[in-house]
């Protein structure tokens, strides 16, 4: 009787561990999401920190009243050096998924004319 109970408990524990293992591996493959808001004329937040070696989805949401983009040049990623290019019309969003492979600091900017105040910093650590 006791043995059976212990066995059932063991199965339950094994099942819970299995489920936990599956869901944690799923969340690590989908990675973290970082959202940056583009307004007239700034990025919010202006400083973003992401982990090195982990998949990250970076999203630009345009809450301004004109078109904005979010650019980061020459990011070291799993696919080599990559330019991050996000473009969003008013009330729209754009996103990109990448894995940064080297710790460092990159400049974030919007290259629309007159948007020189739209700068920020991406920190990979
Ligand atoms: Cu802009």
From TrEMBL:
<dbReference type="InterPro" id="IPR028096">
    <property type="entry name" value="EfeO_Cupredoxin"/>
</dbReference>
<protein>
    <submittedName>
        <fullName>Cupredoxin domain-containing protein</fullName>
    </submittedName>
</protein>
<dbReference type="InterPro" id="IPR050845">
    <property type="entry name" value="Cu-binding_ET"/>
</dbReference>
<keyword id="KW-0479">Metal-binding</keyword>
<keyword id="KW-0732">Signal</keyword>
<feature type="signal peptide">
    <location>
        <begin position="1"/>
        <end position="25"/>
    </location>
</feature>
<dbReference type="GO" id="GO:0046872">
    <property type="term" value="F:metal ion binding"/>
</dbReference>
<feature type="domain" description="EfeO-type cupredoxin-like">
    <location>
        <begin position="13"/>
        <end position="124"/>
    </location>
</feature>
<keyword id="KW-0186">Copper</keyword>
<dbReference type="Pfam" id="PF13473">
    <property type="entry name" value="Cupredoxin_1"/>
</dbReference>
<dbReference type="InterPro" id="IPR008972">
    <property type="entry name" value="Cupredoxin"/>
</dbReference>
